[in-house]
Design goal:
143 residues; mainly beta; three-stranded antiparallel beta sheet; 13% helix; flat
Length: 143
């Protein structure tokens, strides 16, 4: 018979190390679970659930122009980058409340989520995210 080991919060890292050692392809998933490098809260954003298959990610980019913003997906991540160059001719700031610095922000997308549309207007970047629903799971009205 096999020994059944019980794990609790105190030895959770040991459990994940054991799972990581005996698995193939879960490395990135487990690393994301323990990764806390997303502590930056710039730029501010809203995530709006429109319905069960559509979400909107609204990112506030005050002072950015469309050509200073780059949005792309790669390896299951949505990435938004903003490149802002500091201008020296604006004068000396008495108070600088608008953060207009360069940034890179990533969001992990689920396997059944796709970017459907990206728009940028009046300092607001809107990314429409849709859930891919297989045809046999889609709603069908018969009457």
């Amino acid at each position: 018979m096999t020994n059944l080991a019980r794990y609790h919060a105190a030895n959770l890292p040991e459990l994940f190390e054991r799972i990581n050692r005996n698995s193939i392809g879960l490395d990135d998933y487990l690393n994301r679970f323990w990764d806390d490098t997303t502590t930056s809260n710039y730029p501010p954003y809203n995530l709006v659930q429109v319905n069960n298959v559509l979400s909107k990610l609204e990112i506030a980019l005050a002072g950015f122009k469309k050509d200073e913003v780059k949005v792309y997906t790669e390896f299951g991540k949505l990435s938004v980058e903003g490149k802002k160059e500091e201008s020296k001719d604006d004068g000396e700031f008495v108070h600088k409340g608008l953060a207009q610095r360069s940034f890179t922000r990533h969001w992990t997308l689920a396997d059944d989520t796709e970017v459907r549309q990206v728009s940028f207007s009046d300092g607001l970047l809107v990314v429409e995210l849709g859930k891919i629903v297989p045809e046999h799971h889609q709603r069908k009205d018969w009457f």
